[in-house]
Amino acid sequence: MASGTVLIYDEEMTTHKLLWSDPICDIEVPERLSSSYEQLKCYHLVERCVHVPAREGSEEEILLVHSSEHLEVAKSTQTMNEEELKRVSENYDAFFFHPNTYRCARLAVGATLQLVDAVMSGKGRNGMALVRPPGHHSQRNAANGFCLFNNVAIAAEYAKLKYDLQRILIVDWDVHHGQGTQYIFEEDPSVLYFSWHRYEHQEFWPSLKESDYDAVGLGKGKGFNINLPWNKVGMGNSDYLAAFFHVLLPVAFEFDPELVIVSSGYDSGIGDPEGQMNATPEVFAHLTHFLMQLANGKLCVILEGGYHLKSLAESVCMTVKTLLGDPVPQITGEMAPCRSAVESIQNVRAAHKPYWKWLTYEDTSFLQNLSTKSNLLKKANSNLSTEHDSKITNSNENVKVERFLELHMKSILFPVPPIKTATTDSTGLAHFLPVAVHLVKEMDKTEIKTLVSGFYVDLVEDDKTLLSLGSMLAILDKILKKEVRNGIAASPTPAVSAAVALRHSVRFGFQR
């Protein structure tokens, strides 16, 4: 069985950058990549990964998805001056060219395909590719939304061709709808595409009617395109988890993919000026963990958006930690999804009822087209510009988010009690433990008498019983002091130890 998590990063992809002033494009900066990689190094995650070098995607690979005309335009920009680059860029919606953009985009494609090869060949069980420019908005014949080539779509076509895959799941948790990926696969039943995205009744970019919940695919692809539109900002951990529990995971297990690819945009995280959502970094650990249960663990995570550097970097780290097999941290915050999220989820389930067995007996008669069709939500202040409306312009708010994340991640990464497992048998039990072992010294008779003096007379005074009791109470004492979370004790007389430990825990008011 494959082991190890693959990480692919090439610093050259940071050379793609905006050369002129553009308030729409200025958030797509090279630091998105470099700061994420630096944070991975700070958490000592880079050294734990299997490193695979990026390569350039070939023209043949790019043409699996894109037209030759689109490829030729991209190639031609390598020798253009700034004025020419700006003129070509203006032909597209929210995109900019740099002389090195074509090279970076080919590296992004190649890195994605390298990850697919590593996972499918068994070099690694899963992995992440840190790439830019991103890809999920780009279409067959057009750059769009910071994206030149559709990295994930190319990867899906490549995997189908090279590894003869019949079922690929693409999960797009970027805050924008990946309309490029939808267009490419909307008639293809071999690719199940799921996207949640900020929509606000078609008010939010890319503002397409085909981004709504009732766009389920075309022809043979009906039922294989799942859009979950968020119709308000501020969606949090509970809303994201509800979307997974009540839409994505039931469909995914029925679909039974052979490979899972994530369009991993972190603009759906807290503090991001584009998404304006409230999901904290640890939710991405849980989402990743759920997806690792599919396709025998074959999971490829490809970076898309994410424009708050701190939020992006922490979320990338939480994703990689989970891929490596680290315990997922506790989810914080309100656990009930909001009404708007429930409405969107129910509408998606109703729209896909004809296509999936798990929804066959779903009662949708009570639903009243709560959809985006009614266009009930309007902008609160129509006199505000689109730029002002879509970005956090208050520097104080940004400082608050930075400070919150700093404190929040400390409590997530260094919880009290710490995530440690105590054991009194370092030789026989240590190999069962998934994390570092904190060895506990067994108590002697005097210590035991002190702890259980109130009912010590009930004990049979023999060495085996005292040894068992000492092992159990040593661990229990560590738990009560919040030095560890749990423990394993080797005991020749388990019944006595368990009984006494139970009485001890009641006496001390111990609660799990």
Automatic annotation (TrEMBL):
Keywords: Hydrolase, Nucleus. It comes from the Eukaryota. One of its GO terms (cellular component) is nucleus. Transmembrane segments: none annotated. It is found in: Nucleus. PANTHER family: HISTONE DEACETYLASE HDAC1-RELATED, POLYAMINE DEACETYLASE HDAC10. This is HDA10 deacetylase.
